[in-house]
Amino acid sequence: MSTSDEPHSLLNCTVKELADYSISGAASLPSVYFNHCPAVAEAEPVVNEEIATIDVSLLKNGTPEERSRVILDIGRACEEWGCFNVVNHGISESLQTAMMEAFSKFFNLTEEEKKYYTKTNLFEPVCHGTSTLLKGMDVRFWRDFLRVVVFPVFHYPDKPHDFRAISDEYAHKTREIYIELLRAIWESLDLDVSFMEESLELKSSRQTLVGNLYPPCPQPELALGLPPHSDPCLVTLLMQNKGYNGLQVLHNGKWIVIQLVPRSLLCLTGDIIEIISNGRYKSIVHRAMVSSESTRISVATQVTPPIENVTFAPAPKLLERSNCSTIFRGITFKEFLALKSQHKSMNSIMDSIKV
Ligand SMILES: O=C(O)CCC(=O)C(=O)O
Ligand SMILES: [Fe+2]
Known about the structure:
This protein is an alpha+beta fold. Helix content is 34%, strand content 20%. The chain has an eight-stranded mixed sheet. The longest helix is centred in the middle third of the chain and has 26 residues, at 163-188. It is globular and about 60 Å long. 2-oxoglutaric acid is lined by residues 210, 212, 226, 231, 238, 246-247, 286, 288, 298, 300.
């Protein structure tokens, strides 16, 4: 059934509203949320594969041997998986909890209050929305979100009142972590760290915080929270609440359930790392599943180069050294996002920038 067959009022609802409504009586999932893609029907995802755990504190405070080992481990994780758990990151449990609660409080505002932040232009610095609509696709996803640009200019919603202070601190701390991780990633590729920071203008890089809400879903076997996609950024640092293991990553053709490691952050490598490394490091394809029982919230911190004036392309030094030709053309982030938004399948974008 296409979106146009659903009652109009339903299409304007957030999934939070639909979930609250289903608790009070309506127990079936509106058909626009049915995912007919193979994602839902295919083989059982694997649960017992383990991804690497990286002690990020050793990058700063470890012995030279410990540091080199961590860099090797990061390189291997980026090459073989495109994701790893980050521990000893220095963000206190209380700050992690406060950030989760601040997003949760935002999603619990009245629909009227949240509407103030609902924008059609996705470049708005504070943007609340529901689902993820891909051009040309009618299907919707069981997810509400709040996306806030926090760097180089810090933005925040006015409500809840403590969002500003908490997100400011959380953004600072996560920025320190991803800068450390990006340096390690460049080192693992044997690339000049200061050259990379300058050429990507990392000092004025764009950092966003995205809170994702997946409320209980009346028919979770039919819906997806987020469809398979890779992130259009350098890296994503993901924090998850204790809800359930809702995140799955595609690894060697199989969906793997990411087991929640309390207090850790999950680092996912994004499309820009795949481009810069000329395909050696993969941007990981992942998706979010939903549950009928509990609410899941995730908070993603994403970092990208500035939107317009920086063109990223496979690192020339990497190509020279390995005597390889470039597989991707250079592109600005703005152009990349425009391309990404036109794609029906979120996965196929990398093919369209291959030379
Ligand atoms: O909620 C999750 O676990 C995944 C979120 C995600 O993929 C994203 O925000 O890009
Ligand atoms: Fe993602």
